[in-house]
Design goal:
142 residues; alpha+beta; SH3 type barrels; 5-stranded antiparallel sheet
């Protein structure tokens, strides 16, 4: 475990849902993130690990993904590409340490900007250094 801010945010979202289930409450999966540009409400997307080291491994992983009834998403593909690239660079430099998570993919996003305007988005990538805090709720609910 690398113990990063992003790790904590992923754990927070997961535990929010555990607490709701234990208290027999249906809980919205969304979390509100406080940022310098406003409030961002969204559901965290847990990415699929796709082996893109070769055409064969990519084909095998995509076949498995589709066989499980899942769809390929841009967040999973980008994460897989990014982390493979960093691992290869680390290997060339003789570095053997975990790669920290730094971005949080979100779906069903609503952004409430500090100027009062809002935006509804299918998805968004929020970098953890933009997050000042998190609220375990959704807009309009107490």
């Amino acid at each position: 475990m690398s113990g990063t801010k992003t790790d904590y945010i992923f754990d927070f979202a997961a535990m929010k849902n555990v607490v709701a289930r234990m208290n027999n409450k249906s809980e919205d999966a969304a979390v509100i993130f406080l940022t310098s540009f406003g409030q961002v409400q969204g559901e965290i997307v847990y990415t699929e690990n796709i082996d893109i080291s070769s055409e064969d491994s990519l084909g095998d992983d995509l076949e498995k993904l589709f066989g499980e009834g899942k769809k390929l998403d841009i967040f999973s593909l980008t994460d897989s590409y990014y982390y493979q690239k960093v691992r290869e660079e680390q290997k060339e430099l003789g570095i053997d340490k975990p790669i920290p998570e730094h971005a949080i993919p979100l779906k069903n996003v609503e952004v409430r900007y500090t100027n009062g305007s809002t935006a509804k988005l299918e998805g968004m990538l929020l970098f953890s250094d933009q997050i000042a805090g998190i609220i375990p709720g959704v807009f309009g609910k107490e």
